[in-house]
Amino acid sequence: MSIVIKGATVVSTHGQRQLDVRIVDEKVTELGVNLATTADTVVDATGCYLFPGFIDAHTHMELNNGPGTASTADNFTTGSLAAVAKGTTSVLDMATPDRGHSLQDCLTTWNSLAAGKSSCDYSYHMSIIEWNQQLAAEVPKMAAQGITSFKMYMAYDNLRTSDAEIYAAMCEIKKVHGMLGIHCENGDLVNTLQTEYLAKGLTAPKYHPMTRPNMVEAEAINRYLTIAALVGLPVNIVHLSTRESLAVVRAARARGQQVYVETCPQYLLLDDHYYDLPDFEGAKYICSPPLRSTADEAALWQALEQGEINTISTDHCDFNFHDQKFIGKDDFTKIPGGMPGVETRPELIYTAGVATGKISLEQFVGLLSENIARQFGMYPQKGVIQIGSDADLVIWDPQQQGVISAATQLQNVDYTAYEGFKTQGAARAVYLRGQQAAANGKVLAGQQGKFVFRHGSDYNLK
Ligand SMILES: [Zn+2]
């Protein structure tokens, strides 16, 4: 099976050039000007960009919070369809073990959720929610199976560990050149503020951000980076959302520390006034960290422009507004946290970032694909269009316009946080390892996703 894509502008983090691309079976085999069109299929992509398939490094495709609580509206089948339809060809999902269970058990569970069901390629960040000698011994076993990234929590009582446990885990992760990401919020302070608000009868969604203020994130990030500096481990900050946190990161980098920063579309495009919406609509926007002020949004955009943020992923974790979010109708702390997002990230960031001139095409490719592939040990199999790479490709039509709506989305959830948002640019065709997976937002070939065996991380920041 061979395909030649002609006439597109191929974009990488280093630049852009009009090149033809030949695909044979699953790989890119040739790039050049005026390639011979001896192929099974020739695609004219004149006027379009050709991007490496986008990678979402932060999804919760299928999360079950246990008996009596909510399971996500999407599962791997529906979430990955929504991903690949709009150009995301790989996801790194958060695999979370139950307390008392091994990481190996968790890996088995997540393989059963994704294998044969995912329409995009996939791997997992393995969550470490407690610490002991058995778990320490499992870190190299995970790396040997291609799981080289890990997730820990400083908030949520059922998930968080102590600073000493984080230190100990970091020491083991460093030995395998692994990448750690931590949910940074001071869990004790969040608990205290929530108790205070509820005791005063303040139960509406608008109190959610007030119980998780900016400094609660910045303090946790500072503590995290302090521990990482002691260990000498380059680390990832997931979903950074505040200007105070950026100041902490700048200080750490100024003293020579390697820090990777992820933010998410919701912190760039939505602000905390949504929590004031009537009729409990604010619950749609409950996520942690919460949406922030317009000043934080502006600071994040400035950091993006300056190259201080490495990656944009989604924290896709969706619950239906009706039924599920309403669990917390009388108590905002019971509203299941998270929002849909895996489908809309490319169009949102292209529209708000590239089409406005805030970020370049090269930055866009880095933030949504190449930087993620490098950071999480998938490069150059993923994240770049070059000879030998997987033919994960997005033919992007910059002229195509659309409107985001719950009525037309593929995400299996009853709302979108971006209802009515006008988009500029869209994926005209999406290829997953040489097979066309989607055309104009419609999935052609689903459930072709494979597990991606990942290596130790490339710790070299650009
Ligand atoms: Zn998350």
Q: What is the CATH superfamily label of the largest domain? A: Metal-dependent hydrolases
Count of spatially separate domains: 2
The unreliable regions are: none
Judged by helices, strands and strand pairing, the structural class is alpha/beta
At the fold tier of CATH, the topology name of the largest domain is TIM Barrel
Largest sheet, if any? 8 strands, parallel
Q: Which ligands occur here?
A: zinc ion
- Beta percentage is 15-25%
What is the CATH class name of the largest domain? Answer: Alpha Beta
Give the total of beta strands. 19
Distance N to C terminus: 36 Å
Helix content: 25-40%
Biggest β-sheet: strands ordered side by side in the sheet: 8-9-10-11-12-13-14-15
Count of helical segments?
11
Radius of gyration: 21 Å
The oligomeric state of the chains shown is single chain
Instruction: Tell me, rounded to a whole number, the average pLDDT.
Output: 96
What is the overall silhouette?
Answer: globular
EC number: 3.5.2.2
Domain Amidohydrolase-related: 49-435
Pfam family, one: Amidohydro_1
Family: Belongs to the metallo-dependent hydrolases superfamily. Hydantoinase/dihydropyrimidinase family.
Q: Could you explain how this protein is built, in words?
A:
With 462 residues, this protein is of the alpha/beta class. The protein has two domains: 2-51 and 382-398 and 425-443, Roll (Urease, subunit C, domain 1), CATH 2.30.40.10; 53-375, TIM Barrel, CATH 3.20.20. Helices cover 29% and strands 22% of the residues. The chain has eleven helices and 19 strands. The strands form three sheets. It has an eight-stranded parallel sheet with strand order 8-9-10-11-12-13-14-15. A hairpin with a 2-residue loop joins β2 (9-12) and β3 (15-18). α3 (133-144) packs parallel to α4 (163-175) and α4 packs across α6 (214-231). The two termini are 36 Å apart. It binds zinc ion (ZN). Zinc ion binds next to loops.
